[in-house]
Amino acid sequence: LFFFFFSLIAQTTFTVDNIKYEVTSSITPFTVKITGLVDTEVNSVTIPLTVTNNSKTYNVTAIGDNAFNGYTSLTSVSISDSVTSIGKSAFQYCFSLKSISIGNSVTSIGDFAFLYCHNLTSVSISDSVTSIGYGAFQYCNGLLSISISDSVTSIGREAFSFCKNLTSVSIGNSVTSIGDWAFTS
Fold it and tell me: Hey, what's the torsion of the CAs at 139, 73, 37, 161, to 10 degrees?
C-alpha cells in the first residue's frame, strides 16, 4: 500500500524542458500548473500551450502561487493562450523582468503577481483578463503607461501603487471596482 501511495504522489509533479509542473486534473482534459523552474538563472521563459509526460498531454492552465518568485535573472516571459490564471506572487521580486506577454485566456492576475518588478516596462494585458489583484503591479517603477481593457471589471487595492514613473493610465468601460490606493504614488 505504501509503494502504491508513493507512486501516486510521484506522478503528480514532473519536469519538462526546465519547467516544473504539478498535475491539477488527472482526468480528461488533463491539466497542469507551473510551479517553477529547475534552472532559476534563465533569462527568458515561454509558457507552452501543452506539455507531454508519460504519454499524457496536459493543457497548461495556470501559473501557480510563487512559481517564479525571486527569479532575478528573468527578463522576459511569454504566457500561452492556454493559461487562465496567474497565481499570487507568481513573479514577485523578478527585479530584471522587463516584458511580459499575457495570453488571451488569462482571466485573473493574482495578488502581488508582479510586486517589485522594478524594470518591467512592457505589459500586454489581454482582453480576457477580468480582475487584477491586490498589489499586482505594485512598485513596478519601469511602467510608464498602462492600458486596461474593457474586459477588466475589478482593479485590486494598491494594484499599481508606487509605480513612480507611471504617467498614463487608460481604463476600459467595464471597470466597476477600483480598490483603495490603486494608483497612489
Answer: 0
**Is residue 74 a contact partner of residue 68, using CB atoms and an 8 Å limit?**
yes
- Grid coordinates of 80: 500561452
At residue 157, does pLDDT exceed 60? Answer: yes
Spell out the alpha helix ranges (H) of 37-163: none
Which residue type occupies 38? V
C-alpha cell at 69: 518568485
Query: What share of the chain has pLDDT > 70, as a percent?
Result: 94
pTM score? 0.90
Mode of pairing for the β-strands spanning 85-86 and 56-63: parallel
- Residue 92: CB atoms within 10 A of its CB come to 25
User: Within the chain, what is the greatest distance between any pair of CA atoms?
Assistant: 61
Q: Give the pLDDT confidence score for residue 123 in this predicted structure.
A: 79
Whole-Å CA distances, 6 to 18, 25, 32: 23, 18, 19
Smallest CA-to-CA distance from 140 within 174, 169, 177, 165 is with 165
